[in-house]
Amino acid sequence: MKLLNKGASLRAGLIALITLIILNIAGANPVYAVQKKAADTSVSAADVTFTEIPTAADSLAIRKKQADSVKKAEAAKASKTTTSASKTAEKPKSLWQIFIEGLLGGFTAVILPCIYPLLPLTVSFFTKKSGSRSKAVMQSLIYGISIIVIYVTLGLLISIIFGSDALNELATNGIFNIFFFLLLIVFGISFLGAFEIVLPSKLANKLDENSDKGGLAGIFFMAATLVVVSFSCTGPIIGTLLVDAASKGDRLGPAMGMFGFSLALALPFTIFALFPSALKTLPKSGGWLNSVKVVLGFLELAFALKFLSNVDLAYHWNWFDREIFLSLWIAIGLMIGLYLIGKIKFSHDSDVKYLTIPRTFLAIIVFAFVIYMIPGLWGAPLKSISAFLPPEATQDFNLSSIPDGSGSASATPSAAIPASIGERKYAENYTRIKTKGLDAWYDYDQALQVSKALHKPILIDFTGFNCVNCRKMEANVWSDPQVFSRIKNDFVLLQLVVDDKAELPAAEQFVSDYSGKKITTLGGKWSNLEAKRFNSNSQPLYVMLDSEGNLLKDASGAEIPTSPANYDISSYLKFLDSGITAYKK
C-alpha cells in the first residue's frame, strides 16, 4: 500500500520505539550455558564420616548398622545438594522476560507499514460482513486467536526441532553466532529499504483464496494471509526475538516469545473491532511509518554486533575490541539522530519539513545516549550498558582505574608464591576478560596449591566470555572499593571460563562420568566441574572453598551455599565476609 499522507504524527510509533531502544540497550542478548543431564547427587566416601569399628568389625549386625548409617548420610547429602542446586540454577532470562520482549516486539510490529494500514481495513471488513456487532466481535476474536495459534506453533516447532540442549549451545557456538550476526545484518539492511524479505507470492495467493471460504476456516486463513503478507516487516523482529529466546536455553523460550509477539499483534484488531469508533483517534498512515522501519533497521545493525563480539571472545580472535564496538555504536547512534532530524534520508523517505514533538524528544534521547558512550572510548566504565559491551580488558587505551580499598599495590607478592607452583596456567587465554588490579588463577589444581601456600580461601568465579551477567557483576559490584579489596587481599581468585573453546591436550581429554559426553575443550572441563560438583549450569556462580577444595562451613557447621549473580553490594559483601570468617575459624 502506498504511503500518501506525509509528515503525519509520530506519537504512537515513536513511543513504542523508545521502549524498544531501552530494551535493546538493556542487553537483550544472549547468555548461555550448556544444559546438562539431571544432577548426580551421589557423594564420595570422603564425604561420609564412619564411626570407629570395634574388634568384632566383621559382625554382620555391625556391618548392617554401618551400611544404614552411610545410606542416611548419603540421603541427607543428596537432599542438601538438590536444595543448593535449586538455588543456584538461575537462568539469565526468565520466561516472563522473554514474554515481555515478545510483547514489545509485537506492539512495534503493529506500527510498521505492512500492518498499520491494515487495521481499519480488517476491522471494517468484519463489521460490514458480519451484519451485527456481536458477530463482528466474535469473528475478530477468532481472528486474533488464529494469529496467536500460528505464531506460537512456529515457536514450538523451533523448540521441537532443536531441543533444549541444542538451543543452549547456540549461544556459544561460533558458527551459529556468525549466522545470527549475518542474519541480523540482512534484517537491518532490509529495514533500511535495500530490499524486502517476502515469502513466496504463491503462498499468499493460496491463503487468500482459502480465506474466501467463510466460517472459522476462512477467518483462520485470513489470519494466515496477514502473517505471510506482513512478513517483510515482521520477519526481522520475529527473527531477532527467536534468536534471543532460543539462545537462553529454555525449551519454552521461543514459544513464549511468539506468544507475547502474537498477543500484541492480535490485540489491536480485536480491540478496534469492539470499539470501531476508536479508529478515528489513530494517526493517519504516512511517511512516519517508514521512519519507524528505518530506525528499527539501525537498531538491528547495532544488536548484531553483540553476536560478533561473542565469537571474537570465545575463539580468541582478539580484534573486535571494546573501542571498536563503541565506535560502531556511536556511529549508528549519530546516524539515527541525524535521520530523525531530517539531515539524512533514504530514497524512499519523505521530506521532513518540520520536527514534530515526538520526533524531537526521540532525537534528544538518541543524541544524549551517543554523548554518554563517547567517554567509553577512553575507558569510562559505562555501567548502564557494561553487560552488553566487550570486557574492559579488551580496551587498548584505558584511562580509568578500579579503586583498591586496600591502598596497597599488590596484596599477593610474587615472592609469597612458591616457585614450584610455576607460571599461571592458561593466563594468556584470558587477558581480554581480566579485571584490572586482580591477579586471578585459571586452573583448579593450581589454585589449591596457591591457597595452601598463602593460607587464604579460594573464591571460584564460574564465568564466561559471553556471559552478560558476569560483565555486569565485574563492572557494577567488583568495582566497589570494599568488594575489590576483599577479593584482592583475602581470597585466591580462581576464574573458570566455561565457554572457552581452546582444545585440551589429547592426554587431558576425558569422557565425563556426569554427562557421558567427551570433554575436549578447556571450557567444557570447567563446565563439567560446575555441573557435577555444584549442580549448576548458570554463570556467574561464586563458590568459596578451603585449601583442600571443600565448601567452607559457617559457625553451625553448615556449608556456605554458592551464590549466583548478586547486584546488591552489601549482600555480596556479607557473602564474602562469611567465607573469610569461616576460613579463619
Automatic annotation (TrEMBL):
Keywords, ordered alphabetically: Cytochrome c-type biogenesis, Membrane, Transmembrane, Transmembrane helix
Q: How does it sit in the membrane?
A: Multi-pass membrane protein
Tell me one Pfam family matched here.
Thioredoxin_7
Q: Which residues form the Cytochrome C biogenesis protein transmembrane domain?
A: 98-310
Taxonomic superkingdom = Bacteria
Q: Where in the cell is it found?
A: Membrane
The membrane-spanning stretches of this chain are 95-119, 140-162, 174-195, 216-243, 255-275, 287-304, 324-341, 361-380
Q: What is the protein name given in its UniProt record?
A: Protein-disulfide reductase DsbD family protein
